[in-house]
Amino acid sequence: MEVYKLDRIEEGIAAVENTDGAMLFVSASRLPENAKDGDCLTFEKGRFYLAPAETEFRKKVIKGLLDDLINKK
Fold first, then answer.
1. What's the pTM value of the predicted model, to 2 decimals?
2. pLDDT digit string, tens, across residues 15-51
3. CA separation for the pair 61, 65 (Å, rounded)
4. What does each C-alpha distance from 23 to 45, 46, 47, 62, 70 come to in angstroms?
5. CATH number of 2-71: 2.40.50, 2.70.98, 2.30.30, 3.40.50?
C-alpha cells in the first residue's frame, strides 16, 4: 500500500507527494470529496482513500519535532 500526502489543490488539480518526496499531479476529482491539504491518502486498486490514522500519526511526529526544537535552549 502506497501512502501519499495531499499538498494542495489548485484549479482542479491535486498535488500529492509520495514517500520518496516526488510530486504527482492528478485530477482533484480522483480524491475523496472531503480530502484537504495535509491529509494522508493511500492508493489501492486505482483509487485514493483517506488514511486518517496516518495523518494523525504524522501530525504528532511533526508536533513533537517542533516542540523539541522550540524547547531546546
1. 0.84
2. 999 999 999 999 999 999 999 999 999 999 989 999 9
3. 6
4. 20, 17, 17, 20, 29
5. 2.40.50
